[in-house]
């Protein structure tokens, strides 16, 4: 039996609603100072999941008072046309944040597109200037999913210093920036991936597990230490008994017998990704208007470097 009978099932929707309420207040402060924050959302093609995410981003922007500017381009859009649009958005002083929904169609070089975004408008935090700044502990725009995971962890655990965190997955969007943020929070961090030896044994040592590999229910109860806190970033659509359903990278039902806290899928990390996109749009607006930058408003203000 679990020695943690009252497992905390972390409610990502409620946490996201709190973040969005903060954003709404900050937007109203900015508007009083004469700045109307605006987010440009670029979608190329008609991938159904991307369409849903973009629609939700636009809805959350509207709800918080951020102006959203949607650019929907056909799947056969040429790379140079997309780059030209980004150039135009970079030069438009009314646009504070630029988001290009991923994945892009295969004929477009994703890296070239992300590098074309002005780092000060890069609300996804994917530009190499922001990636480098994050690893150096500078105050930069930080990828939304890891930033959302950090908020969930701080709300759940309080101070993270000294905890051993294992990040499963080494993607540029989640695994690598997540490891950087956990290091800034003074965790001991292990990053594991598909080629790691002893994956299960490494995970069993963790106080915190962040699973971001895209393998349905990879992490089972016997991968987890008693009382571990689990953040499940996986969003895997599987067919079960003839029904399509969404599951994470963690076997939620079995993990419940071991952990002290865990995020569900859906309703865990996902909603936080979009809430932190709104936070980043405000952070970008403040970075572009340093006179408004009186208080540090970046969602994950870096801690001093670790010695
Ligand atoms: N430019 C970007 N592209 C992509 C990102 C990103 O951060 N920036 N992340 C993902 C997709 N994504 C946001 O874009 C995203 C994924 C999932 C959710 C979410 O709320 N998921 C729900 C379930 C949704 C469902 O039913 O399918 C949940 O987990 O509760 C939000 C945003 C890749 N692309
Ligand atoms: Mg990965």
TrEMBL record:
Keywords: Amino-acid biosynthesis, Histidine biosynthesis, Hydrolase, Methionine biosynthesis, Multifunctional enzyme, NADP, One-carbon metabolism, Oxidoreductase, Purine biosynthesis. Residues 143-288 form the Tetrahydrofolate dehydrogenase/cyclohydrolase NAD(P)-binding domain. NADP(+) binds at residues 169-171, 235. Pathway: One-carbon metabolism; tetrahydrofolate interconversion. The keyword NADP applies. It catalyses: (6R)-5,10-methylene-5,6,7,8-tetrahydrofolate + NADP(+) = (6R)-5,10-methenyltetrahydrofolate + NADPH; (6R)-5,10-methenyltetrahydrofolate + H2O = (6R)-10-formyltetrahydrofolate + H(+). Its EC number is 1.5.1.5, 3.5.4.9. Residues 10-124 form the Tetrahydrofolate dehydrogenase/cyclohydrolase catalytic domain. InterPro entries: Aminoacid_DH-like_N_sf, NAD(P)-bd_dom_sf, THF_DH/CycHdrlase, THF_DH/CycHdrlase_cat_dom, THF_DH/CycHdrlase_CS, THF_DH/CycHdrlase_NAD-bd_dom. It comes from the Bacteria. The keyword Lipid biosynthesis does not apply. Pfam families: THF_DHG_CYH, THF_DHG_CYH_C. CDD domains: NAD_bind_m-THF_DH_Cyclohyd. NCBIfam families: PRK10792.1, PRK14186.1, PRK14188.1, PRK14194.1. Belongs to the tetrahydrofolate dehydrogenase/cyclohydrolase family. Catalyzes the oxidation of 5,10-methylenetetrahydrofolate to 5,10-methenyltetrahydrofolate and then the hydrolysis of 5,10-methenyltetrahydrofolate to 10-formyltetrahydrofolate. HAMAP family: THF_DHG_CYH. Homodimer. This is Bifunctional protein FolD. It comes from Metapseudomonas boanensis.
């Amino acid at each position: 039996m679990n020695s943690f009978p009252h497992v905390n099932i972390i409610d990502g929707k409620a946490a996201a609603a709190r973040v969005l309420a903060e954003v709404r207040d900050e937007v109203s402060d900015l508007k009083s100072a004469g700045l109307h924050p605006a987010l440009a959302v670029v979608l190329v093609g008609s991938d159904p999941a991307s369409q849903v995410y973009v629609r939700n981003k636009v809805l959350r922007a509207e709800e918080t008072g951020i102006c959203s500017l949607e650019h929907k381009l056909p799947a056969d859009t040429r790379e140079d046309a997309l780059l030209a649009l980004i150039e135009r958005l970079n030069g438009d002083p009314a646009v504070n944040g630029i988001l290009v929904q991923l994945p892009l169609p295969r004929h477009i070089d994703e890296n070239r597109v992300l590098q074309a975004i002005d780092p000060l408008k890069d609300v996804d935090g994917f530009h190499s200037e922001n990636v480098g700044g994050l690893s150096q502990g500078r105050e930069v725009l930080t990828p939304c999913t890891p930033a959302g995971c950090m908020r969930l962890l701080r709300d759940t655990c309080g101070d993270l210093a000294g905890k051993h965190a294992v990040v499963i997955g080494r993607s540029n969007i989640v695994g690598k920036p997540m490891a950087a943020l956990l290091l800034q929070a003074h965790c001991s961090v292990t990053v594991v991936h598909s080629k790691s030896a002893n994956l299960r044994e490494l995970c069993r040592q963790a106080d915190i597990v962040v699973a971001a590999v895209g393998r349905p229910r990879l992490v089972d109860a016997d991968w987890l230490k008693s009382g571990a806190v689990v953040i499940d970033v996986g969003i895997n659509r599987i067919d079960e008994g003839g029904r399509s359903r969404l599951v994470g990278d963690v076997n939620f039902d079995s993990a419940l017998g071991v952990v002290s806290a865990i995020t569900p899928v859906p309703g865990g990390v996902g909603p936080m990704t979009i809430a932190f996109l709104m936070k980043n749009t405000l952070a970008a607006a403040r970075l572009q208007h340093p006179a408004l930058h009186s208080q540090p408003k970046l969602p994950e203000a870096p801690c001093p470097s670790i010695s």
